[in-house]
Amino acid sequence: MREVLADAAFQLYLERGFERTTVDDIVARAGVGRRSFFRYFPSKEDAVFPDHESCLADMTAFLDAASDERDAIDVVCDGARLVLRLYAADPQFSVQRYRLTREVPGLRTYELSVVRRYERTLAGYLRQRWNGAENGALRAEVAAASVVAAHNNGLRSWLRSGGEGDAEAAVDQALDLVRTMWAAAPQSPAPATEDDEVVVMVVPKGAPMWRVIQRVESALRDD
């Protein structure tokens, strides 16, 4: 029944426009009563995104089951891919929905609230993984936001193309950039001790990175 109502609602939105479609129109098309609609959807907006609740539940279960031995960024990237697969499973519907949300400001706002729920879920997982690390909570929020932004960039590029090409390739390319950035980011450093040695090095402004690395290696060897 949930799918029947969602399909009836979406077809009416495309035919008449979102604002001109009422709940009565939807239940009449589906052949059910108003109570049936509100049993499944709190609002007309929810009927446009009928699959996100189950996807969010799947993401939560995936993160809960992830091994702590895996890299945390890799885990949340894989969690974000669950959303991609949801869209890629029905390209025609996904493209139509994307176009509809671009035309209706209220749906765009609702979509952003859905995206924010995914982001909070990923951030919650990262906060647990980085609990006790320096700036762990802040890093979790920033990392989750970057994963969601990269995922959505690749996904929307595919949607704007009309669902042509490889959706996973577009998203993977974007997520690979996030992984590269976070792999290069400094991890929580161990507190300095009296035994730690400090190397002071002077490098000309504008020196290429290979020259900086060469100076560092030379300083360490000389030490």
What does this structure look like?
With 223 residues, this protein is mainly alpha-helical. It has 2 domains: 1-49, Arc Repressor Mutant, subunit A (Orthogonal Bundle), CATH 1.10.10; 51-195, Tetracycline Repressor, domain 2 (Orthogonal Bundle). The protein contains 11 helices and no strands. The chain has helices at 2-16, 23-30, 34-40, 44-48, 52-65, 72-88, 91-103, 105-129, 136-160, 167-184, 209-222. The N and C termini lie far apart (74 Å).
Quick tags:
elongated, Arc Repressor Mutant, subunit A, 2 domains, 72% helix, single chain, Tetracycline Repressor, domain 2, 223 residues, 11 helices, mainly alpha
Rg to the nearest angstrom? 24 Å
Here the CATH topology of the largest domain equals Tetracycline Repressor, domain 2
Share of β-strand residues: under 5%
CATH structural architecture of the largest domain: Orthogonal Bundle
Average pLDDT for all residues: 86
Short description:
By secondary structure, the protein is mostly helical. Helix content is 72%, strand content 0%.
List the helices and strands and how they pair.
Elements: H1 2-16, H2 23-30, H3 34-40, H4 44-48, H5 52-65, H6 72-88, H7 91-103, H8 105-129, H9 136-160, H10 167-184, H11 209-222
